[in-house]
Amino acid sequence: MAASPVIGSFVAADYAVFALMLLVSAAIGVYYAIVGRGQSSSREFLMGGQSMTAVPVALSLTASFMSAITVLATPAEVYRYGASYGLFSLSYVLVVVVSSEVFLPVFYRLGITSTYEYLEIRFNRATRLLGTVMFIVQTILYTGIVIYAPALALNQVTGMDLWGAVISTGVVCTFYCAMGGLKAVVWTDVFQVGIMVAGFLSVIIRAVVLQGGVSNILNHAEFGGRLNFWDFDASPLRRHTFWTITFGGTFVWTSIYGINQAQVQRYISCKSMTHAKMSLYINLLGLWVILLCSVFAGLCLYSVYKHCDPWTAGMVSAPDQLMPYMVMDILRDYPGLPGLFVAAAYSGTLSTVSSSVNALAAVTIEDLIKPYTHMSEKNLSWTSKGLSECIISIGVFGGLAGLLSGLVMSLWVGIGAQFYPPLPEQSRPLGLTTHGCNFTTAADAFNWTASPTEPGLYTTVLQQNTAERYVGGFSIFG
Known about the structure:
CATH class: Mainly Alpha
Order of helices and strands: HHHHHHHHHHHHHHHHEEEEE
Low-confidence stretches: 1-6, 440-478
CATH architecture: Up-down Bundle
Strand order of the largest sheet: 2-3-4
Number of domains: 1
Oligomer: single chain
Strand content: under 5%
CATH superfamily: Sodium/glucose cotransporter
Radius of gyration: 23 Å
Largest sheet: 3 strands, antiparallel
Mean pLDDT: 79
Distance between the termini: 21 Å
């Protein structure tokens, strides 16, 4: 079945909201460039002069690894596999306690800028350099994916220009990272967390109104098997269980909050260890809010399309397009709100990329330049700003390289999956159906409609250029 055309497209109000988000982010960079003219050292530029307080650092910690992938992929994950993903709320508690009580005191008392300085203190310089190089390569590749992947998904559903979105976000991110340093990055993160929550709420509130209340959405989720929290199967081969998410997730996120340069650099920029610890605990609240919004958005997605799955029906070509599809479906009569959701997605991108850029600049200066040169602090500060510009450029073009390498890996994994498919009892996707869709054929097109009280509130015309015509419905169960 051919994929559908765009069901709605951005209007002037949507572009205006998106542009305003970019403009405010850039303005924060300008502000801190003006008030921070005294940032004469690289440490002041990269660490904010260790003068930050708990609340903004906490929100920045929340934003740093809550990218557009969170906004788009987590609801789709809940839609397909259920709300067990919400158990990460428990792993976040363990992560914050371990990070604040075990890792933070070590890094804060050492007074280091790069976490890899610890490796030289503990082992030797070769170990430090190896860790630094691995971090740089990994982060550049990750940054390219974070920039390109959501742009592709949003382009295919909203009609937003692909490279226009990539380049505009890259340019703005470069600007405020290079102009304002860590303080600009932290305060833009604060603004962007607000945009992310607002974008989620715009979709959630509209879905709740359409579906007749929160209780109806939860009832639909329960009936569809989506409230599957308490699976205590001990098999490590299972996709999601209480144990793999709660304890496996703790190990994954501890590697981020405990030792990742982007996170460590934030909490050791606080003016005292008390503020640093407070930032981690306040950040826990931010993580819970973002997780709750993304999981409930996934339940809304299921409630709206429980009888007519857009992915199975060919309305979208990949699961990561489901959330933007619903946005354009249920918010198309409210100009500006689709733009707010896209701004939320790109706020996640900007916050993650800016964190990565600042972290890369820090490790490059501290681990690869300072130990081998005798540059003045002023020159190191200017070098830090120049590196911010270079790194983001590499990240933008890394998106294309990531696309090509991702294609090769996808072919490898896809071909391998044909020979060694995962067992259904391990992956266990939940049931999706199209029996509520009403397909009728025409000469060269067919219409997809649904009851006004059911999913798919708007009629979509699907261009069908193949010889076959499809009439009726079908369902897929895991």
